[in-house]
Amino acid sequence: MSSGLLLSSVLIVTLLWRVFIYTRLLIASAPLNRLPGPPRESFWNGNLRQFLARHAEDFQKHVAVDFGPVVKMSGYFGRPLLYVSDSRALHNILIKEEHIFQEQEVFISSNLRLFGPSLLATYGQRHGKQRKILNPVFSINHMRSMLPLFYTVCHKLREAITGRLQDGPRELDMLHWTGRVSLELIGQGGLGYSFDPLVEDKEDPYGQAVKALIPNFGRVLHLRWLAVLADKWNVPRWLQRAVVQAFPADSPIRKLLEAVDTMDRQSRAIYSMKKRAFDQGDAEVVKQIGEGKDILSILMRANAQADVNERLSEEEVVAQLSTLIFAAMDTTSNTLSRTLQLLAQYPDVQDKLRRELLETGAAQGTSYDQLNQLPFLDAVCRETLRVHPAAGNRFRINRAVADTVLPLSEPVTTLDGAVLSKIAIPKGTEVLVGVMGSNMNRALWGEDALEWKPERWLSPLPSAVTDARMPGVYSNLLTFIGGKRSCIGFKFAEMEMKVVLAVMLTTFTFALTDKPILWTSANIMFPTVGRNAIRSELPLRVGLYKPARL
Ligand code: HEM
């Protein structure tokens, strides 16, 4: 048999096998069609085009709150997709059967190329081993010791913005500033590295590469499947690289490669510098590693002390650096800018928060515990994280060897009137973790669940919320999801939000301009002016706060 004929036969058999598996999935998932949900747009796109469209926030809310705790949708080519916000079912998906409901392959394979083998690019035991070393690095004690550094950076932000208001109030793009301060905080707090002095405009190659990553990645999303195939077929790295390098130098994929290479080079340089100094006893850097309060220093110390079998390889440690910057930056800065927009929209809430911050002197530097005991600051942060989860669409796929069963905390009624207390989930079914659906569930939070009302956190939460035992790591919410793949940096994010707000609100006033701000439903939501703008920005009218004279 000629090699051409052999290759075609292999391809045909593989294709037929795939079609067989897929048809089996469609047949096995037919009973799921009895569950309530929106009609699909087409067989090819299912509901995904509606759900992932640029301005899909209203459709996403419709799915989240109008059909109940388990919603039937369709993925591409009729693939079954469930939107789940039932607490017991979510407990199963995120905690009990986390090994079955895994991240999609495209997510893992693309992250592997962007960051290397980090938390965002590994499954199972390898991921578990990384979490074991990294979890203690994000402990409250470490956050406590990082707090003074956060204040130092935020005071520079205050100086930088004050400098721009010498001629009176003016419009400023607050997303630009929350972005800069978030990058600097994760730089200094995460890596012991300064990206941006804030008080002067200086470009840093690492910072530029991080900023170029997502826009260029967004332009080659359709190629993500090739990464999955390359992993499945063990295509050598040099060959994958050669293919990418065959594209023109100004193509998005080459720019993406350039950003990835720069991030990798800079991460390695920071790691090696610390390691060399550690090995050779360079007093200044050893001081940073030995007493350093940044995440990398703590991680290197923990790794050196860990049992040999539990240690992370150098490649794994380096891969965490860009991962942390990426995971920390837009999520936190966009949530912060959303908070400022809401405070501008509700001036009475802004005044009340400012009063609390001024009365307690929170802007100058306070202890971690005192900062966390400010009730209204806490309420504003929690309420914004509840109603506006920055990364609200988390997909999982059932990779069970056999079909599996999802138990429910409350029975659901099917379209033909049957009452189900559990649902059979065929292998291959996709699941969307219902972050909005549980954070804004009227049955739990009350009829005003969709409204932003920080006051709700000043009294005990409804017992329905606490009794539901949502499997989220933070405050009965799913904003940082839960389980082994929950957000490892949620305390870092919370502390950052609180310090930035404490310093900003006591120095500046924020008001809306007449420009229409719209939020785009992307992997991480971002604001733009007008519906079709490309540039993300959040213009607010900013003035210096002047205390009223008695
Ligand atoms: C408001 C800010 C933030 C939000 C809303 C947020 C949300 C999330 C969510 C939903 C996940 C789960 C992703 C998934 O399952 O696919 C996640 C994972 C992660 N986050 Fe965050 N995050 C925030 C800030 C941060 C910060 C500040 C850091 C680091 C300092 C961080 C580091 C990570 C990492 C490393 C992961 C991957 C964890 C793993 O897979 O084991 N995040 N985040």
From TrEMBL:
UniProt keyword annotation of Heme present: yes
Protein's pathway: Secondary metabolite biosynthesis
Pfam families for the chain: p450
GO MF entries: monooxygenase activity
Keywords from the named record: Heme, Iron, Metal-binding, Monooxygenase, Oxidoreductase
Cofactor: heme
Domain of life: Eukaryota
Listed InterPro entries: Cyt_P450, Cyt_P450_E_grp-I, Cyt_P450_sf, Cytochrome_P450_monoxygenase
UniProt keyword Transmembrane present: no
PANTHER family from the UniProt entry: CYTOCHROME P450 (PTHR24305), CYTOCHROME P450 12A4, MITOCHONDRIAL-RELATED (PTHR24305:SF166)
Similarity remark: Belongs to the cytochrome P450 family.
Name of the protein: Cytochrome P450 monooxygenase
Protein species of origin: Rhodofomes roseus
